[in-house]
Amino acid sequence: MMDGAGAGPDLLAWVVAHAGLLAALLVAGVVAGVLAGLLGIGGGGVLVPVLYEIFGILEVDPSVQMHVALGTTMAIIAPTTLRSFASHHAKGSVDMQLWRRFAPWVVLGVVGGIVMASTSTGTVLKWVWIVASAVVAMKLAAGKEEWQLGADVPKRPWFEAAFLSFGWLSTLMSIGGGTFVVPYLTLYGRKILTAVSTAAAFGPLVAVPGVVGYIWAGWGQQLLPPFSLGYVCVAAALVVAPVSVFAAPFGVRLAHGIERRTLELAFAAFLAVVCIRFLMTV
């Protein structure tokens, strides 16, 4: 946990001693911010595996390594998702009627995800990440935006149940949720830009209560890295979050004007590599 006495000098020494790792965090923050705006994914799909490796190098106890990677990622993507949502909303491309319909169910899913994260081992959390990201990678690789299951979103209770599960899974993976929301909405007749923009509006519903939840879940844990609040490593979050927030509007601009297929394939390949890496550690 954070120790208030002498925190300033200790933090400076930590920064100097880990300059190379901090540079990697800055690069990851830029990539996460651009992806948040471009794909509506919040950037957690990049940050969770990067932070997991960095916390391993810093010798964070393996029993909490995955938890800290998830909690810190959630703290980083919270301001990024808010910035991405604001940018898309300013362009009038967010379906606010849908947002009002799914918002309470997403938050309920987040609560369930935090409860599960607080009682699960790192291995369980890795398996959630492996299975869910493998499915997402296959969907991204397949493309096929023309696939549809219906002309409009399902009626109650199926729509609400879907977003309850999206909130739950997004919390356990520490992602903005666009990886689930974008394909779901396009399968039910929404244009890709509307789906991305509405997914950006989904992100804060996960990230803001998610940060509070991960702090609560890890409060009092004795094996955390320095400068942590619960499962949130404040030092890492302070480095990455401002960069991600700065980069998010660039992704929004790209989303409104470029071909996305190459990036989707690259991100699918990245998720496949992460799945293999996590499989090697479980």
Strand order of the largest sheet: 1-2
Element order: H for helix, E for strand: HHHHHHHHHEEHH
Rg over CA atoms, rounded to whole Å, is 18 Å
Low-pLDDT residue spans: 1-6
Helix coverage percent of residues?
A: over 70%
Mean pLDDT: 84
Per DSSP E runs of 2 or more residues, the count of β-strands stands at 2
Structural summary, described in words:
- The chain has 282 residues and is mostly helical.
- It is 76% helix and 1% strand.
- A two-stranded antiparallel sheet has the order 1-2.
- Strand 1 and strand 2 (232-233) form a beta hairpin.
- Helix 2 (19-39) crosses helix 9 (192-218).
- The longest helix has 29 residues, at 62-90.
- The chain is globular.
Brief summary of the model shown:
This protein has 282 residues and is mostly helical.
Structure characteristics:
mainly alpha, disordered N terminus, 1% strand, single chain, 282 residues
How does the SSE layout of this entry go?
Blueprint: H1 7-17, H2 19-39, H3 44-57, H4 62-90, H5 96-119, H6 122-142, H7 158-173, H8 178-187, H9 192-218, E1 228-229, E2 232-233, H10 234-255, H11 261-279
Antiparallel strand pairs: 1-2
Helix pairs in contact: 2-3, 2-4, 2-9, 2-10, 3-4, 4-6, 4-9, 4-10, 5-7, 5-9, 6-11, 8-9
